[in-house]
Amino acid sequence: MAELQLKSLVKTYGNGFKAVHGIDLDVKEGEFMVLVGPSGCAKSTTLRMIAGLETITGGEVRIGDRVVNDLVPGKRGIAMVFQNYALYPHMKVRRNLGFGLQLRRTPKDQIEAATNEVSGVLEIEELLDRLPKQLSGGQAQRVALGRALIKQPEVFLFDEPLSNLDAKLRASMRVRITDLHQRLRQEGRPATVVYVTHDQVEAMTMGDRICVMKDGYIMQVADPETLYERPANAFVAGFIGMPEMNLFPAVLTREGNIPCLTADGQTIKVTDGLSHRITTGDGPVTFGIRPQQLHVVAPGTDGAFTATISHIEFMGHEINLHVRLGDAQLVAVVPTDSFDTHFARGDRVGLRPSGSHVHLFDAETGENVSLGQGSN
């Protein structure tokens, strides 16, 4: 396996559209790196430049100690797993798995041994004599994974490989892929992985680190916990987390050393250490709080905004309480066993944010100004 480095990587199309804006990214040897972002953010374009399927306008792609910009895909030391599996329909699973080795003129006994090993790891031994049309979606995806694994490439590239599967199968495959990655690491064969998805659940549950992209720029690269707890900007804050973080305009002032936030004509004091984290002066900000940290209390309670219930969603073990605060639509997550069943649409409730979990973002740049001095 090898380290992967992107240095000032640029992609500009013939019509002048700039899809990737000089991004830098280091993927460590054996790391599982996830590229995530909304449709059109250029995550797949970036992956295709790494693979050699898209020409590179500027910058470098380095795999190990080699700059691979001008190498064809087959010479880059990569293996790719696609969204549509891309299995050869006329070949049985056994030959699909070993075909890449066959093209390298690998001896037949070695191909057979590698096929048996990979099929055992992925538990697809019983599928070896089937054609792709005889496979379910999950089985076909495991075969595609095996075909990449058998090549023992320097870098594995995954382009939304689970998007065609149903929810239950996606969850199962997430576990299977991450377990396989851990197993290879424990066996001393660490696999360097770049995995593209638009699904933040896949990103958060699979990645050692996650690269969040928007419009061809990198917004933040960090481990899942850091992205969730310490988002660098409002975009990352709103993209990572389910339900997404509540973000709404407010005005920051101070009463002594206590931060005060005004929204919809209401002013609350926020304690719990927020004052030590703020790196901006008074003025307009974007207030951020995760639904799980927005507590429902009686209207008029100190430190709470008063809002109006607009919708109630029963989710089983918890309730998503949708409320309106002025022009902002917010969500508070309430455990079902503590929810007041007398609440109804149109009722007024208090919303008290947990001060230690409040985020403030610059109203113009979106930068998080509540991470404290010296924060990454």
From TrEMBL:
The keyword Repeat does not apply. One of its GO terms (cellular component) is maltose transport complex. It comes from the Bacteria. Residues 4-240 form the ABC transporter domain. Keywords: ATP-binding, Nucleotide-binding, Transport. PANTHER family: MALTODEXTRIN IMPORT ATP-BINDING PROTEIN MSMX, MALTOSE_MALTODEXTRIN IMPORT ATP-BINDING PROTEIN MALK. This is Carbohydrate ABC transporter ATP-binding protein, CUT1 family. It comes from Aliiruegeria lutimaris.
